[in-house]
Amino acid sequence: MSGYSERARQWVHIGSGGFALLLRFLTWPQAALLAAVALAFNAFALPRVGGRQIFRPVDRERGFPIGILLYPASVLLLILFFRARLDLVAAAWGILAFGDGMATLVGRADAPRVRRRLPWNGDKSFAGTIAFAIFGAAAGIAFALWTRPAIAQPPPRAFAIGAPLVAAIVAALTESIPVRLDDNLSVPFAAGVVLWAASVMDPHWYPAQAVQEALPLAVAFNAAVAYLGYRAKTVSISGMIGGAAVGVVIFACGGANAWTLLFATFAVAAISSRFGLARKTRLGIAEEKGGRRGAGNAFANCGVATLASMFSVATPYPMESLLALSAALVAGGSDTVASEIGKAWGRRTFLITSFRSVPPGTPGAMSLEGTVAGIVSAALLAELAVAIGLAGRHAVVPIVIAATVGAAVESLLGATLERPGILNNDMLNFINTAVAALTVLWLA
């Protein structure tokens, strides 16, 4: 497209991050107002003052620049969510501006040394992802430290350095996922979640003695179980490593009972994937790699539970954290059961958005048989969570409701966003468990 320059677009993207420096001097309503003004400017004024030169060809075809609108919209949402912690907004903004911008500039460079592509995403390079982490972390730390004095109770300096560093790494990995979700949405969301998680933890927390004592056993036990899972062909090599990592954290932080629920949800998911295998194979909807689950599946289904297990020892909310862990694990396990039973024995598969019949395996599809199986498995797993002391007796119904809500949200997003490639199955599974954890906390 004549006049279009991706390099110019990215420098504008990076330069816009400089406005984050104003957060040291603004109240949150003032900052929100300016973000709203920026959103309105990008939507209505920018195209009329020469801004079309940084519109990508797809933006010109669509008629509006979705990325240029999502940038200020994401900043506005960060400000509204972190009203009392504009240092977190500044850090996330810096990661978005400098991390994402430099990743594109470095990744598109012509030097042969940067042409090595990521194994899981051929459109991204190692150099671009590394540049994202380095420049994003540097900007996030600098902006957090700059804005820190304006906070009513300034966080420790170590927090202003450590939290943006981890957030930048997580955001860089999120940006590398092969989906069409706009980076101006996924990057600030990933960074914001990490920064929020760090902010609710005790800044002076150090792994409790119980965690330290449990760690050797957790490592040895999970290494053995992961290896047996690989030998049994239920996980791939990456799944063995990722599953072991998840298991170690949940065992060490959440305890043996939390690990028991983790194992139970994995077991019912693995077993249900074997049901109706002949039919699934014939229809081409069987699990890839013979049903072996990889690291992406482990992190997608257990990432929220892993974070909740850490919250149980690093925040003042141990019971709430274990309840969220229970709901997240139950949601992940019961959703897999619903999906596998529906594909194996579902008589009529339909979309939640239109109730129109679709072939089994269609993104977002549901069936009566699968839905019932999912609810039953959620109830049984919730009963197990109660029996082993992760939640009180009153929590069974809220956990089942939360798992059902999570599954419904996943089906809705799958029917609308998975087919065009905006979200993938792993991201949908993560959203499912996150929605379940938030729902059960709201209910209970």
Task: Walk me through this protein's architecture.
By secondary structure, the protein is an all-alpha fold. It folds into 2 domains: 6-200, no CATH class; 209-443, no CATH class. The chain contains 17 helices and 4 strands. The strands form 2 sheets. The protein has a two-stranded antiparallel sheet with strand order 1-2. A two-stranded antiparallel sheet has the order 3-4. A hairpin with a 2-residue loop joins strand 1 (117-118) and strand 2. The chain is globular, with a radius of gyration of 23 Å.
Task: Annotate the secondary structure layout.
Layout lengths: L5 H11 L11 H18 L11 H6 L3 H16 L4 H22 L9 E2 L2 E5 H22 L9 H19 L7 H18 L8 H23 L5 H18 L1 H17 L4 H7 L11 H20 L3 H28 L3 E3 L13 E3 H20 L8 H23 L6 H19 L1
Radius of gyration: 23 Å
Structural class: mainly alpha
* Helix residue percentage: 55-70%
Total number of helices: 17
Which blocks of ≥5 consecutive residues have pLDDT under 50? none
Structural key phrases:
globular; two-stranded antiparallel sheet; 69% helix; 2 domains; 444 residues; 3% strand
Summary of the model, kept short:
This protein is mainly α and 444 residues long.
